[in-house]
Every structure is written in structure tokens, then in C-alpha cells.
Design brief:
heterodimer; A: 324 residues; 66% helix; B: 532 residues; alpha+beta; Dipeptide-binding Protein, domain 1
Chain lengths: 324, 532
């Protein structure tokens, strides 16, 4: 998929027919991208949802009635209360509470924060790694290229979740049980980052291979710019489009991966739950009829993934000249 | 497995079953929340594992359905003098590989269970010397009288000397071993079942032993054991008929199972006591932000922890009423005077004051070790404890792990690596002395096996003295008073924080009849299953 996107990149350098006056904002409003955005209602809804989720996560400490990560704020007396609109509901627990007296709504907000943090950081990490390796492979070529791309090929034969589990397991066995919640988060980011860099590397490498034989690169080389400047300042910007698409879709994948790891018990601890941990905990109470403990975190996760994916899909189509 | 494959498998199984065994022999599928790692019967002293091993191995004695000691591989025994016991072994018993069972195997097993790496050191007293009189008679000589010598021998399984020697398995496999030994992957017992295949931690298939010396009470041809860690999945497996017996049924699902029509939940009080322990031995805790000293050495800190925990709330909320809060480290069924003990009142303000007096006005930080697939709602109880202690300013980093990792870390083979932990204990002898010795006894003498399971190293020499008197006292009334004295010392020291006795909850298909023993050993050699 990503390889197919490469040829149109040349287009990005061709000067615009009508230079746009005014600020970047005016330029953005009149861009093709924004035009396509305005025409798709679904995309607007998806964007609104995504923004909403990010806002909820950022404002979690303001919106939540309690801090579910602080055990001192949890009252066991308040455990297993049904959502507020049911007969057994109780204020202020909007979506009910779990078996530790954690307010499900607050837990979702804080869980979103963890999920999005891990997702965004994971994407940044895998993106940086993939871009650097892709640039090196494409620009230098030869044996280095062969080595990096063969590693990438080997890794592509495993599902990402397997790599993430492997990295997670190795780190945990090396550091033993001394990991606290914060370092668990870092381990998750690294595990997820290492599982998703391949797509970036392959895409960037493809773009670089096309770009590096063009005259502007030759010109840059002639005036004696160092290789890394050429790579970063001249070649990379022409490969940004597809990277953006991959990053958006990978954000959703990274969040799912984190949720899966936590659901399997390899992710965030019970005392600092992410959405996946909440679903795992709630799963135990499904048979007992306490559905809200698992249902709401599940819905939140599904809605989040769906909106990010819709956004990614639209971005891919909008940046693909063949579909215009 | 595809439908066709399973049909084929079912066809083959039924043909084979028809051909080689009586028509009524059944396959019973059993799922437990925990896994079966090692088949070596001296590796892990833990009820579920011991119960699994009871299907393939046997001891000189065993316990019946009411937990009474009855003869097994020893036909009878007598006390020639207070320090000398004679055991008459059962003749014509064969191990699964065909080797005959003789006195040599008993003497070998007595050495092996007390060798380095064994988790069962206290089951056979260190001062007991085993002497072979003839092939079917063994004498045991003791330094001092011990009326409860055989009370823990139901968990001491006899292994075959020749088989162990041939397979390089003379030394017991320690729980912390990273590579499996031959004995941890294979078995050679005398028991009612033989292991057909064993995938550690995944699946174990037991096949009925046609040459068992006893007449079987079960009508099974095989038992397929799998580990299902997820509560919801385990219950779903029972409800769908995929498995016939599950242990435990999470207490929140008991109603659901009973209402389902496919299974029932057998409940009853368990004699296991769940408690919290604190490291009182090290000069500095392994996992804490307090450096240079150990806060748990201060009795006020231990008392503060005790008083900060609201065990009634844990009972009503986490255990849904299915627990008996306990002031003692032993269950009331096992000790008549337990009603004389009461827990100190739940008192968070008093606890906070005690912490301040002890020099921790802002509390401190410590890591708590907790299993998450061993006891009823274990991780949830630990989380509740974390919350309650947070209210007196103590920050607990909770490390809830599957029992395999948990036990490897906190037990003796792992070097007692814990600062604060949760454990459950069922005295193997069904007697308080086991608790006084294994849990409350000092572990400062490396040669003695006292304090084996005293993970925090609580120590009071006076208690040890009384415990020794308890061991030798034959008069029941006097003995009970001595036990009381010992428990009072422990309670005054706040050496441990007893929480409660949990309830048993076995999920059993309507097709299966089972005997439930109060020590929570799921023993399927008493199970019968209706024809399918």
C-alpha cells in the first residue's frame, strides 16, 4: 500500500499555479485537503470525536470525580454501584463503579490518558526510528540498505503484537519485578515502537530512492551540504504525506496493541489501569450481571479506534492523487 | 480443531474406549485457575499442586473424606516406645513402571524430602532416623517424643529409589529451578492415575491406573486437566459443558452457575487462613523508600497496619459475605479455643497516630507482593488493602503476579524476596502446631526447618519454647492451653495480620458427583460421572 503512494510525491515540488497570499491559515482553508475534509461529513464527525477524546484525556483531572490512580480516594464502600440511571445508581458515579469502588467514568478518562499517551509516544518513537532507518537505507544504499531492509522483512513476518509481547517480556525478565507503573509505561512505548517501525522505514526508503536521483539533490550535494542535511531538509519533506497517513493509522493500532497487552495482563497494572486493563478487570464481572464495568471502557475504546481509523482512511484517500 | 477433526477424534476415542475399558469409564475434564508446573512432589508445597500429585503419588498414610489420617502405603504402624515408631508396609504394591514398592523407597524418599531444594522440609521431622528392618518394615527413631509425627505424612509422597537414580532425579527440584528436571516432567508413583502427557502450565492428561492396589471408587478412565486463568472463561467453560469441574468459581458468579441448570456450586468453609506478613528480619527492607532501617521491626508500625485494615468491609464488598474474618492464624474448625481471640478494632485514626509515634508521620512507601490466581479474589483483596493503607499515608506499590512467579520470588528457594506480602495457609497436619512451627517459628537457625514458611521472619523465642512444649504434650486440654499461650504471644507482637478464612467454591457439572474436603484439595479419585 505504502509503496503505491510513492510516485505522486514528485508533484509536491511542482510550484503551485496560484501562489496563495496571507497567513498559513488562509492557505490551509483554501487547500485541496480542506476542501475534501469539508465534503466528508463522516470525517468531520470522526475528527470531532478524536478531538473530544484528546480533550477528555487532557482534562481528566478536572472532569473526573476522583483520581482512580490514588488508592486513598477509593472507598470500598462504594464498590459495584450500577450506572446512575438504573434503580441502584448513586450520585456522583455517572457510569457506576467497579469492585474497588473506582468510578468507571473517571477510570475511563484516566485510562484514555494512558492509552493515548502510550499510543502517541509509541507512534512518535516508531516513526522516528522508522524514518531514520528508512533515510539511511535509501540514501546510503548497498549493504546498509540490504541489512536494514532484511531486518524489516523478517520483522514483517511476525504480527506486531507478538513483537510487543516479546519486547515486553524480555524487559520485564531483565529488570525483574522492580518496575513501577511509570517505567511500565515506558516499556510499553518501547515495545509498541519497536513493533511498528517497519512500515515507516519502507515508505521513507522508497521515497528517498526516487528523490535522491533528482537534480535538486545533486545540486545540494554539489554545494557540499552534509548528507544528513540533505536527507532531513531536502528529501524527507517530500515523503511526509504517506508518513502522516501511516502515523494516523498506526496511532489506532498502537492504542489497540496497548489495550491488548494490558488485557492480557502484560501492560498497565491494576492500580493504574488503562482502557485494556479496565476491560480485563470488568470481564470478570460480566457473568455476575455487573456489565457496566466492562461495557463502558469497551465502548470508549471502540469509539476512539473507530474515529482515528476513519480519520486515517480519509487522509489516505485525500492525499492519493489517483482518487481525486 | 475443525468439526471434522473433532468428530474423527471423538469417533476414535469412543472406539478405543469401547475396546479397552468397561463401557462406563468416563473422561472427566477439570479446570483450575492455577497451573500445574512441576510433577516433582517435593517442589511446591501448595494445596492445588499437592492435590494434583495425590492422583499419581501416595504417602505412607493419607487422609480420608473427613481429613482423618488413614493407612495408605503403610498397612499399619505402632509406637514401640515414645521415640520409636514401626511401620508395616503394604506388600504387592507396584510403581507405575512396574518396580515393586519396598522399604528402600521409603528411606530414599525420607532423605529426598529433607534434601536441599525440597519445599517440604517440615513434613518429616529432621530428627527422624529411618531404619530398614526388612523389605516391608521400617522403624523411625526420634530424639524426642512426637505424638503428631505422621500428621503431615499425607503430603509426603513416596518416590521410587531405582527410578530416581536411573533418571538423575535423586535431588529434589527446587521451585526456583529454571530448567525442568526429569522428575518434574515425568512421574512414577503408585497412585490411582498415571500421567499420560504433561505440558507444564497448560494441560495434563491423567489415565486410570489399571494395576492400582485399591479398588477404585471413581469410574473414570481419564482426567484432562487444563489451567484456565480467567475467571469468566472458566465459568463459561463449565456452563457450556466444555469442562466438568472448575475450581474456584469466583464468588460473584456462584448465583449464575446455580441458576444455569448445567452445574452447581459446592460451597463450604475452608480451613485456609489468609493473612498478611511483613519482613521483620532485614535491617533494611528490599523494596521501600525507607533506607537504613526497617520500619516493620517497630511493633507500632505493625500494629498500625493491622488497625488500618477493615476486614469486615473486605468481607462484605470484596468477598460478598463469603469469608469469616479471623483473629487467629488458624481456622476455628481446627482449634477449639479460637473463640477466645478477637481482632483489635478497625481504627484508622489510631493507626495514623501509631505511625506518627513510630516516626513516620507522612507514612512511607513499600512494595506488596500478592498472587493473582491463587486465593479467592486475592488481587482484589490486596488492592483493597492498598486503598486502606493509603488512608493512613502508606503508599503501597502492588505487585500482583501469577502464583508461579509469586511463589518463586517470596518462598525460601527464592530467598524470601519480599517486604510485605499476602499468603494463605492450611496447616497440612490439620493442627495448630504446624502454624506455630512453620509460620510463627523463628527461622534464624539455618539447620532447623522451623519457620520454613515464615516469609517475613517474625521471631519470638518464647513462642518457640511454647511450641516445643505443644509438640510433646499428649494431654489435649493442657495442649490447647499451651497453643493459646503461643497464639497470644504472636497476637501481642502483631507478628502477622490475619484476614479471614475464605469459602470453598467448586463448580461441578450436574453429571458429576464429588466429595469436597475442607482443605480444598480437589481429589477426583472420589469422583463419579454419569454416562454421556
Amino acid at each position: 500500500m505504502s509503496e503505491a503512494l510513492v510516485p505522486h510525491q514528485a508533484k509536491a515540488d511542482t510550484p503551485r499555479k496560484r501562489p496563495l497570499p496571507g497567513s498559513w491559515f488562509a492557505r490551509a482553508i483554501e487547500s485541496d485537503l480542506f476542501y475534501s475534509f469539508r465534503r466528508s461529513r463522516l470525517t468531520m464527525v470522526a475528527t470531532a470525536m478524536t478531538v473530544l477524546f484528546f480533550l477528555l484525556a487532557i482534562l481528566a483531572s478536572v472532569l473526573a470525580v476522583q483520581n482512580p490512580f490514588d488508592p486513598a480516594q477509593l472507598q470500598l464502600m462504594n464498590s459495584r454501584i450500577a450506572p446512575i440511571w438504573t434503580a441502584d445508581g448513586q450520585s456522583p458515579f455517572l457510569l457506576g463503579t467497579d469492585e474497588q469502588g473506582r468510578d468507571v467514568f473517571s477510570a475511563i478518562l484516566y485510562g484514555l490518558r494512558i492509552s493515548l499517551t502510550v499510543g502517541v509516544l509509541g507512534v512518535l518513537f516508531s516513526g522516528t526510528l522508522g524514518i531514520i532507518l528508512g533515510l539511511i537505507a535509501g540514501y546510503i544504499g548497498g549493504a546498509v540498505d540490504g541489512l536494514i531492509m532484511r531486518i524489516a522483512d523478517v520483522q514483517l513476518t511476525f504480527p506486531a503484537i507478538l513483537i510487543a509481547l516479546l519486547v515486553n517480556g524480555v524487559v520485564k525478565s531483565v529488570f525483574g519485578n522492580r518496575l513501577d507503573a511509570m517505567s511500565t509505561l515506558v516499556v510499553l512505548v518501547i515495545a509498541i515502537g519497536l513493533s511498528f517501525w517497519v512500515q515507516y522505514a519502507r515508505t521513507v526508503r522508497g521515497s528517498v530512492m526516487v528523490e535522491k536521483n533528482k537534480d535538486y539533490v545533486a545540486a545540494a550535494q554539489l554545494i557540499g551540504l552534509p548528507a544528513w542535511v540533505i536527507m532531513l531538509r531536502h528529501v524527507l519533506p517530500n515523503a511526509m504525506g504517506p508518513i502522516l497517513v501511516i502515523a494516523t493509522i498506526n496511532l489506532a493500532l498502537a492504542i489497540i496493541t496497548e489495550a491488548t497487552l494490558s488485557f492480557l495482563g502484560a501492560g498497565m497494572p491494576d492500580t493504574m489501569p488503562s482502557l485494556g486493563t479496565l476491560i480485563r478487570i470488568g470481564n470478570n464481572y460480566l457473568f455476575a450481571g455487573e456489565w457496566w464495568i466492562v461495557a463502558f471502557p469497551g465502548i470508549a475504546l471502540a469509539a476512539l479506534i473507530l474515529s482515528i481509523n476513519l480519520l486515517g482512511d480519509w487522509l489516505r484517500d485525500a492525499l492519493n492523487p489517483k482518487l481525486r | 480443531m475443525s468439526v471434522r477433526q473433532s468428530l474423527l477424534a471423538a469417533a476414535i476415542v469412543s472406539i478405543v474406549a469401547f475396546a479397552i475399558s468397561p463401557a462406563s469409564a468416563q473422561t472427566l475434564r477439570y479446570a483450575n485457575q492455577g497451573e500445574l508446573k512441576s510433577l516433582d512432589p517435593y517442589t511446591l508445597k501448595e494445596t492445588t499442586t499437592i492435590a494434583h500429585h495425590a492422583h499419581v503419588y501416595e504417602g505412607l498414610v493419607t487422609r480420608d473424606k473427613d481429613l482423618k489420617i488413614v493407612p495408605a502405603l503403610a498397612e499399619s504402624w505402632e509406637t514401640l516406645e515414645p521415640t520409636r515408631w514401626r511401620f508395616h508396609l503394604r506388600k504387592n504394591v507396584k510403581f507405575h513402571n512396574g518396580n515393586p514398592f519396598t522399604a528402600d523407597d521409603v528411606i530414599f524418599s525420607a532423605d529426598r524430602i529433607r534434601a536441599k531444594g525440597s519445599n517440604f522440609l517440615t513434613n518429616v521431622p529432621a530428627d527422624a532416623k529411618f531404619v530398614k528392618i526388612d523389605d516391608y518394615t521400617v522403624d523411625v527413631k526420634l530424639d524426642s517424643p512426637n505424638p503428631i509425627l505422621i500428621s503431615q505424612w499425607d503430603g509426603w509422597y513416596i518416590m521410587n529409589k531405582k527410578w530416581c537414580e536411573e533418571n538423575n532425579a535423586v535431588a529434589p527440584t527446587p521451585a526456583s529451578a529454571t530448567t525442568p528436571s526429569y522428575a518434574s516432567l515425568h512421574e512414577n508413583g503408585t497412585g490411582p492415575f498415571m500421567i499420560e502427557s504433561h505440558q507444564p502450565g497448560v494441560k495434563t492428561v491423567f489415565k486410570a491406573n489399571p494395576n492400582w492396589w485399591r479398588k477404585p471408587e471413581h469410574n473414570l478412565k481419564e482426567i484432562i486437566f487444563t489451567s484456565i486463568g480467567s475467571d469468566a472463561t472458566r465459568v463459561a467453560a463449565l456452563l457450556s459443558g466444555e469442562v466438568d469441574v472448575v475450581e474456584p468459581v469466583p464468588i460473584q458468579d456462584i448465583q449464575r452457575v446455580n441458576a444455569s441448570g448445567t452445574g452447581t456450586v459446592m460451597t463450604g468453609p475452608e480451613i485456609r487462613t489468609i493473612f498478611l506478613g511483613m519482613d521483620q528480619v532485614r535491617d533494611e527492607l528490599l523494596y521501600s523508600n525507607v533506607k537504613g532501617k526497617n520500619p516493620f521491626k517497630d511493633i507500632r508500625v505493625r500494629e498500625a497496619f493491622y488497625k488500618a485494615i477493615d476486614v469486615e468491609l473486605i468481607k462484605s464488598r470484596v468477598m460478598r459475605g463469603l469469608s469469616t474474618p479471623s483473629a487467629l492464624m488458624v481456622a476455628p474448625q481446627l482449634y477449639v479455643l479460637s473463640k477466645d481471640f478477637a481482632r483489635p478494632k478497625f481504627d484508622p485514626d489510631g493507626a495514623k497516630k501509631l505511625l506518627t509515634e513510630a516516626g513516620y508521620p507522612d507514612g512511607f512507601e513499600v512494595t506488596m507482593d500478592c498472587p493473582n490466581d491463587r486465593y479467592v479474589n486475592d488481587a482484589a483483596i490486596c488492592q483493597a488493602v492498598v486503598g486502606m493503607l493509603a488512608r493512613i499515608g502508606v503508599k503501597i506499590n502492588l505487585l500482583a503476579q501469577p502464583k508461579a512467579q509469586y511463589f518463586a520470588k517470596v518462598l525460601k528457594p527464592g530467598g524470601y524476596q519480599t517486604s510485605f506480602y499476602m499468603l494463605g495457609w492450611t496447616p497440612a497436619s490439620s493442627d495448630s502446631h504446624n502454624v506455630l512451627n512453620d509460620i510463627l517459628g523463628c527461622r534464624d537457625d539455618p539447620k532447623s526447618s522451623r519457620g520454613e514458611a515464615n516469609l517475613g521472619g517474625y521471631c519470638n523465642k518464647k513462642l518457640d519454647e511454647v511450641a516445643d512444649k505443644v509438640l510433646q504434650e499428649a494431654d489435649t486440654a493442657k495442649r490447647d492451653l499451651l497453643i493459646k499461650e503461643a497464639f497470644e504471644i504472636a497476637a501481642k507482637d502483631f507478628g502477622y495480620i490475619p484476614l479471614h478464612q475464605q469459602a470453598l467454591a467448586w463448580g461441578v457439572s450436574k453429571k458429576v458427583k464429588l466429595t469436597q474436603r475442607a482443605d480444598n484439595q480437589v481429589l477426583l479419585y472420589w469422583a463419579t460421572k454419569q454416562e454421556e
